[in-house]
Amino acid sequence: MKESGQRMDDPVRIGVVGCGSVLRRPYMNILRSMAHDGLIEITAVCDNDEDKLRAASEAWSAARATPDYHEVVGSDDVDVVMVLTSMPLHGPISREALEHGKHVFVEKPMATTLEEAAELIELAKRQPGHLVCAPAVTLSPTFEEIGGRIQRGDIGPVLAARGRYGWAGPTWGKWYYQTGGGPLFDLGVYNVTSLTGWLGPAQRVTAMAETAVPERVVDGESITVKVEDNVHLVLDFGGGTLATVTTGFTMPKYRSPALELYGADGTLQMLGDDWAPQGYELWSNRLGSWQVFDDTAPNWPWTSGIRHLVECIQSGETPTMAPEHAYHVLEIMVRALESAREGKAKTLTTTFEPLQFDAPQRGAEHLVHDRSHR
Ligand SMILES: NC(=O)c1ccc[n+]([C@@H]2O[C@H](COP(=O)([O-])OP(=O)(O)OC[C@H]3O[C@@H](n4cnc5c(N)ncnc54)[C@H](O)[C@@H]3O)[C@@H](O)[C@H]2O)c1
Q1: Rounded to 10 degrees, what is the CA torsion of 332, 334, 338, 341?
Q2: Any idea of the CA torsion for 293, 299, 304, 308, to the nearest 10 degrees?
Q3: How far is C-alpha 172 from the geometric centre of its chain's CA atoms?
Q4: Strands, E assignment, 249-339
Q5: Is the pLDDT score of 271 beyond 70?
Q6: What share of residues in the chain are helix, strand, coil (percent, to 5)?
């Protein structure tokens, strides 16, 4: 285990805990590409489901396979523990890994309770390992470009904002519909991360949340849904600025912008989803017109957080995805659900250092013909 802050030239050794849907599809692609580039090796895979473990073990034949995550977090041949399990296990596994001095990459949310998350924040300060928490939406070039425009004042002070992300809901993983699951932790987390990434920490939250579809078929079985699957929340950023987030396992499809920012001098709309942006549109009061900006990185993968962590370990730099931001996002989500249950707004107590944007302004974009192979 190398101390953070030191350069590391050897491939970073990764132990993956949780080999379900998200590993099998999206993370497999980025991990294979990083291994191909000599950035990483997968030294351990872990799942307590025999079939999932066997499949991962076949995919990474050089890796040790184990059903016991304690073996991975304590292993001498693991630098980074990647936590890709069901959400209620994120906190406990990440805590043990940090206690062993490992770097941790954890899927969202970082934990499902504020107490667990506070422990992780404290440990990450004391231990040598970095703690990087998904989602990585703040790393997308489109997110950074919009952030740069906000900070340069292209739409003036932001007065109002909206985010939305939803779909019909997973047909696998019963835990998605039990305590610690639900669409706010699973989907709304992206919008809350984006909005606070641009606008900084929020001060208050209020919400309504209901269970719109009480029975579902998951993994081939009929189940009773135990969480709110339909959530609408309002964030107060202070100074009169408000934002809403609409999320749920209640939305078949949409063609509206993922995020809308309304300023005193103009409007910015991110197209697509914040985890898969498709460019953005800008209304300027000064110009009296809309401008449409193609996405400069249409192949940017939302799994980029693990690459960011590995690059930071190798360069000795501190990741830009601060765990305090993820903690603030978790507080918003936890307090939003409390607010919905109690029928009153909640004051937020956590905070984080607002992001700074130095994305280059656009130049000769017209000279790029093949955007998918740059
Ligand atoms: N599926 C996606 O497309 C997707 C996308 C983005 C993020 N995520 C996030 O990734 C995480 C996993 O989601 P998923 O859809 O892959 O879920 P999943 O249920 O398909 O996979 C979770 C895996 O964790 C394993 N697991 C559970 N308890 C374990 C334990 N004690 N020890 C070892 N393994 C254990 C399960 O057996 C399962 O294989 C969640 O946090 C989710 O929010 C998923």
Answers
A1: 110
A2: -80
A3: 20
A4: 259-263, 266-273, 276-284, 289-293
A5: yes
A6: 35, 25, 40
CA-based nearest residue to 334, from 174, 199, 227, 211? 227
Atom of ligand 1 nearest to the CA of 52: 39
Whole-number Å distance, alpha carbon 294 to ligand 1 midpoint, is 33
Of the candidates 77, 100, 101, the residue with the CA atom closest to the CA atom of residue 12: 77
Residues with CB under 6 A from ligand 1: 17-22, 46-49, 52, 69, 84-87, 89, 107-108, 172-173, 186
The preferred substitution site among 53, 85, 174, 219 for testing ligand 1, maximizing ligand atoms within 8 Å of CB, is 85
Q: Which residues pair with 205 in a beta bridge?
A: 235, 346
Report which DSSP code applies to 358: -
Residue 112 Cα to ligand 1 middle (Å): 14
Cα angle 119-125-127, degrees, rounded to a multiple of 5:
90
pLDDT tens string 208-264: 999 999 999 999 999 999 999 999 999 999 999 999 999 999 999 999 999 999 999
Contact yes or no for 165/273 (Cβ under 8 A)? yes
Q: Is the pTM of this model over 0.85?
A: yes
Q: How confident is the model at residue 33 (pLDDT cuts 50, 70, 90)?
A: very high
Contact (Cβ atoms closer than 8 angstroms) between residue 64 and residue 14? no
User: Residue 132 has which token pair?
Assistant: 């990087």
Q: Which of 16, 22, 94, 95 to mutate to test the pocket of ligand 1 (most atoms within 8 A of CB)?
A: 22
Q: If you measure from the C-alpha of residue 363 to the centroid of ligand 1, how many angstroms do you get, rounded to a whole number?
A: 41
Tell which one of 47, 50, 57, 275 to mutate to probe ligand 1, the residue whose CB is within 8 A of the most ligand atoms: 47
Closest CA to 351 of 202, 234, 236, 221: 202
